[in-house]
Amino acid sequence: MAEPQADCARPSKRPRLSDFANPHFERYDASLWLADGNVILISADGKGFRVHQSVLSNHSQFFADMFSLALPENDGCNASYDCPSLTLAENGNDVSWFLRYFYTPLFFIPGKRTPYEQLAGMLRMSTKYLCEQLRTDVIHHLCLIYPPKSHILPPPELPECPALVPDENVSNHALLAIRMARENDVPIILPVAFYYAATIEPSVYVDLLPELSREDHRSLIHGREKLIKAVLKIAWSGIFEAAYEDPCDDQNCVRTRYLLLQSIADHRCDPVDLFISPMLHTQVRPAPRKKQPDFDQVCLYCYDCWKESELHDYSTVWKRLPKYFGLDGWPDNAPRIPWPQEAEFRF
Asked: Concatenated DSSP letters for 186-243?
């Protein structure tokens, strides 16, 4: 048998024993080819990894169950390396990331900026091979980016692009997150992932990868329209609600509010950026107490009523966010995850 070449580059159904056939491989990952390893894992693209059955068993319930049974026979790899071999259905990068989590301290922890391709690979592997701790850590990390919180007062102000999103994923991180959530049953990140996806112009995201399913594409378009209507309703009612019970006839105050509405009507700001952009009432200055407002100010009474109204309406829209996109709702038992701006990132 030809000696495989070293490859030093780093890169959901439960499987059956019959899936692990064809043990041949042409190259191996030198950093995960351990001299005292007692099992060889072979990726679908032909890369070998010589590791320890005990390490796999400690982290993966699937491998623990497999190694408690007789391993499938193969056609000579055990004779050459004096240990059994298993061929996996995943590519070399996915297998490498999966194993490095076990062998390399701090290779991945929640809050460490990580490419989405790696997150997706680790989530797929941990879900398929029943690695509970890795799956929990990846979901925790995704929850830092797409917080699964429903009851927030005051409403959240999300970053335009979460700090944990790598540069190469800035344009399509929300679409990748939706795909990850759908493929690996992680619904708690979907509301905020759909919200971020809705901030992308439809003419732009149709050209981005990955493509969403037809159902998710329809939900995204419909949810975006519902969100725009909700935001415009907040803008119109919030600005003039203060005048309903106690009309304000100060000309400068009325003028300032009309100008702001005109800017919204002219689409100078994207209504979908509700939780990214500052609230509307913060874009004007309140007049000092007991003083007439200047030309670019509103009276203090209108400002206070406007602020209170906006806080209430923003919170209402946030609580209804999953419904806009046809989702079941916010999770009842979401993990305690700090907001991105509150989290202490060590990397």
From this structure: -GGGHHHHHHHHHTS-HHHHTTSSSPPPHHHHHHHHHHHHHHHHHHHHHHHHHHHTHH
Question: What pLDDT, on the 0 to 100 scale, is given for residue 295?
Answer: 57
Place of tokens 């297998």: 95
Tokens describing residue 41:
């894992």
CB 96 within 8 Å of CB 32: yes
Task: Say if residue 338 is preceded by a cis peptide, omega within 30 of 0.
Answer: no
Instruction: Provide the whole-model pTM.
Output: 0.80
Q: Which DSSP symbol is given to 85?
A: E
Cis amide prior to 154 (ω within 30 degrees): yes
**Residue 42 phi/psi, 5° resolution?**
-120, 125
Cα dihedral sign for 260, 265, 268, 271? Answer: positive
H-state helical runs in 129-199: 132-145, 173-184, 190-198
Q: What is the DSSP string of 12-52?
A: -----GGG------SEEEEEEE-TT--EEEE-TTSEEEEE-
Please write the tens of the pLDDT for every residue from 255-297: 777 777 766 666 544 667 777 777 777 777 777 766 666 656 7
Q: What is the Cα–Cα distance from 52 to 37, expressed in whole angstroms?
A: 5
Average pLDDT, the chain: 79
Q: Using the predicted structure, report yes or no on whether residue 111 has a pLDDT greater than 70.
A: yes
Separation between Cα atoms, residue 94 and residue 27, nearest integer Å: 16
**If we measure between CA atoms, which residue out of 169, 160, 59 comes closest to residue 114?**
169
Q: Which residues, in sequence order, are CB contacts of 136 under 8 Å at separation 6+?
A: none
Q: Per DSSP, what are the bridge partners of residue 86?
A: 41
Task: Please tell me the total number of residues recorded for the chain in this structure.
Answer: 347
- Calculate the CA dihedral of residues 8, 11, 14, 20 and round it to 10 degrees: -30
